[in-house]
Design brief:
Length: 213
């Protein structure tokens, strides 16, 4: 009859061994997602366009139109700024606020929502930085039990198969973590630049409209 220690040991072994296949499937899916992320990073790098002078010109013109009472044209002017960044989307929201006369009340809220949206888009990448190596470590430790058991029983094939799984999951987990870390670092720098440009755009609009209102 099994004692309490033997029962706990057996249950823990069963539970950990049962986690191997879900862990491997999760790693494969996460690796595929990380490759997609890498491709999107290359695409964003080649298509990302930042034209500070053009943004300044659009903001000054929109402020002049709003100051003269042509809010609809000011909103259209801000909407005309095209960029493959969040800047163009937020400028459109600022234009809508000018159109309905709530710019002074909503510009801070719009900027805060933009920052929250950026943080939300970075969350999966930041989780990938941690989850990838975690799954890799799980995939390393779980097969060690069967590997040691095979070694004790002289089963070289079981030992080698378990060690192959352990080493490959480690490599894949580290690769996933590395890709996600690089993507998070680069995207954070891009988004910080976008937020800086948006704060500058709001300063232009607010100062020009308030100064000569």
């Amino acid at each position: 009859m099994m004692g309490v220690y033997d029962t706990c040991e057996y249950l823990l072994y069963v539970f950990s061994d049962a986690m191997l296949y879900p862990d491997m499937i999760g790693l494969i899916l996460l690796f595929g997602w990380s490759l997609t992320l890498l491709g999107s990073m290359v695409h964003d790098f080649t298509t990302r366009n930042r034209d500070l002078e053009k943004m300044e010109e659009v903001c000054f013109q929109a402020a002049a139109l709003a100051r003269s009472g042509r809010a609809d044209q000011a909103a259209a002017k801000l909407d005309s700024y095209e960029s493959k960044t969040i800047v163009s989307q937020v400028l459109k929201e600022l234009g809508d606020a000018i159109l309905v006369g709530t710019f002074r009340l909503k510009f801070e809220k719009i900027l805060q929502d933009a920052e929250i949206s950026i943080d939300r888009s970075l969350e999966p990448i930041r989780m990938g930085v941690r989850i990838g190596p975690m799954l890799g470590l799980m995939g390393t430790l779980i097969p060690l039990g069967p590997a040691l058991l095979g070694l004790a029983q002289g089963n070289i094939k079981q030992l080698s198969d378990s060690l192959v799984i352990a080493f490959t999951t480690t490599v894949v987990g580290i690769v996933v973590g590395g890709i996600c870390y690089c993507a998070a670092t680069i995207r954070t720098r891009w988004y910080r630049q976008d937020l800086s440009d948006l704060e500058y755009a709001v300063d232009i609009l607010r100062s020009e409209i308030d100064e000569k209102a």
